[in-house]
Amino acid sequence: MSATPKTQPKTFHVKSFGCQMNVYDGDRMAELMAAQGMVATDDANAADLVVLNTCHIREKATEKVFSDIGRLRKHGQNPMIAVAGCVAQAEGEEIVRRAKVDVVVGPQAYHNLPDLVAKAASGASAVDTDMPVASKFGALPARRRVPPSAFLTVQEGCDKFCTYCVVPYTRGAEVSRPFDAIIDEAKSLVDAGAREITLLGQNVNAWDDDAGTGLHGLIRALDRIDGLARIRYTTSHPNDMKDGLIRAHAEVEKLMPFLHLPVQAGNDRILKAMNRSHSRDSYLRILDRVREARPDIALSGDFIVGFPGETEAEFADTLSLVDAVGYAQCFSFKYSPRPGTPAAEMDGAVAPEAMDDRLQRLQAALNRDQAAFNAATVGKSCTLLIERKGKLPGQMLGKSPWLQSVHLMTDAQIGDLVEVEIVQAGPNSLAGVAKVKAAA
Ligand code: 5AD
Ligand code: SF4
């Protein structure tokens, strides 16, 4: 399949695009290859094997993959190229046909990557976009070096079928990993140095098991792990925001005061056309209950502007929803038609200029609210989890409970929890002054 014959690679480089779940998958693929004796390299052009862990959620993702492949062929060592992730799942055959890559592996099959690489090295075709019922997780090696803030995938896939979205097609139906497997992985992450765990899933708050434990029950079990200081979860769907989870925000101290709850739009007709199955009002009522449980919670969301048929008045409803909520931070995107999704067939494409204008106005409102949220934390005391070194000597960067980046001068080390007072707020980062070192 490849342009030239290949041998078994000795070095590899993984490049992940897109969401945190892809970052998690990319790390797991790197661990798999390291367990086979291959050595990681930071320089894609110096690697024998390059894994492009792709994202398909928005525009130009596929084109980006093809231009990356072109660049690697020009500047690299004629590496073996593996395309993984959602573009591989959605367009595997097209990629093989157009770019003659060596390996194509979907997000549910990447535990087979070493076998596929060996197959490609022997000149055989190496494509695996199966979605097996048995989980890939059992076939992955144990985690080794982990950062203080680690990801843990607990749920994958989506049954919601929002009309604009490829995820139900590329990641498959909603599947929850078993409770015991998650607790074991969490304990091994903590043993390897994690102080904070972010539970990941396309619909993480739909996580459940046969006992009906629910995400809140899982969070309460994680709360009992010694050495784990903080718990987060992302991404949630409004319809799965159950009472128990909202209560956990009031009662579980390790659960950080942050909620990412995408709404996408503020107008009911558009929400219906998106098949979101919640209304503007039901979404706002959920946020009221969350705020009642945890008054200082930082709220986050995702927005799409320019969905087919969106009028100026309907877009104004998105702006008024933003005003009503006062988000701490958000992601916002221009609608992009995804092949195979119902919205891609809808009439009423919004003109590119209107799309740009709406995104600009939305982002101005979101930036205003983010600055206001950050400014309101000045003078507050909180605990930071130190994640990395800052640019200046003696400076470290950490995250506040509200997921803000805070820099401070300290002799604390990566992984320490430090009590600080926030003394200054910029649009994207804050400054803190260390108080006393918190007990580990
Ligand atoms: N066009 C634009 N944005 C999209 N998203 C998902 N699909 C599309 C699309 N076709 C956004 C949604 C989602 C986030 C992960 O990406 O806001 O919540
Ligand atoms: Fe996509 Fe909607 Fe599922 Fe989120 S809930 S992954 S936007 S289909």
UniProtKB/TrEMBL annotation:
Cellular component GO terms held in the UniProt record: cytosol
Subcellular location: Cytoplasm
EC number: 2.8.4.3
MF terms (GO), sorted A to Z: 4 iron, 4 sulfur cluster binding; metal ion binding; tRNA-2-methylthio-N(6)-dimethylallyladenosine(37) synthase activity
Entry superkingdom: Bacteria
Residues in Radical SAM core domain copies: 144-372
Primary subcellular site in the record, as a coarse category: cytoplasm
Cofactor comment text: Binds 2 [4Fe-4S] clusters. One cluster is coordinated with 3 cysteines and an exchangeable S-adenosyl-L-methionine.
List of residues binding [4Fe-4S] cluster 2: C158, C162, C165
Domain MTTase N-terminal: 10-122
Key words of the record: 4Fe-4S, Cytoplasm, Iron, Iron-sulfur, Metal-binding, S-adenosyl-L-methionine, Transferase, tRNA processing
Enzyme class: transferase
Entries under SMART domains matching the protein: Elp3
Protein known as: tRNA-2-methylthio-N(6)-dimethylallyladenosine synthase
Organism: Sphingomonas koreensis
